[in-house]
Amino acid sequence: MSGLRKQAQACITFQKPRHHAAMNLRLNIYDLTEHAQTYVKRHGITYELAVPQSVCDQWWFFGCKGVPDPLPEHLTPVTQDPMELIGHGLSREEAVYFSKP
Fold first, then answer.
1. 60 exposed, middle or buried (CB, 10 Å; 0-12, 13-18, 19+)?
2. How far apart are CA 85 and CA 95, in angstroms?
3. Fewer Cβ close by (within 10 Å): the C or N end of the chain?
4. Are 39 and 32 spatial neighbours (Cβ–Cβ below 8 Å)?
5. What is the total count of domains within the chain?
6. Cβ–Cβ under 8 Å, residues 64 and 37
7. Which DSSP string corresponds to 5-24?
8. pLDDT for 8 beyond 70
9. In the chain, which ranges are E strands?
10. 94 and 12 Cβ atoms separated by less than 8 Å
11. Which residue has the higher pLDDT, 96 or 11?
12. HSE on the CB side for 26, CA within 13 Å?
């Protein structure tokens, strides 16, 4: 299990359910010249979990805060319910955690 996944698992296990809205974002990396996590951080966005999606040249960022409006180029909201992403980068526990309350 990766360090990020372990960290997310620790959040799932020990934190109370979230009562605040956090955004889940998709970053299209096809023509980016910097690492996806660097790009997101450069725009002031923090996140709880980053999941690479190499088959579609994207990274998914879950539990994002500090998201600017309008969104920077290459970033779009993840429109799927995290429960639909189980097995596609999220475990069941992660999907429950990142689902909207």
1. buried
2. 7
3. C
4. yes
5. 1
6. no
7. HHHHHHHHHHSPPP-S--EE
8. no
9. 23-28, 49-53, 58-64, 75-77
10. yes
11. 96
12. 16
For tokens 């359910």, the residue is 17
Tell me whether residue 45 is exposed, middle or buried, using C-beta atoms within 10 angstroms of its C-beta: 0 to 12, 13 to 18, 19 or more.
buried
Answer yes or no: are the C-beta atoms of 75 and 25 closer than 8 Å: yes
Question: Can you give the pTM of this predicted structure?
Answer: 0.76
Query: Among 78, 87, 98, which residue's Cα sits nearest to residue 12?
Result: 98
Beta bridge partners, 27, equal: 59, 75
Which pair of structure tokens corresponds to residue 84? 């639909």
Residue at token pair 């992660």: 94
**To the nearest whole number, what is the mean pLDDT of the chain?**
82
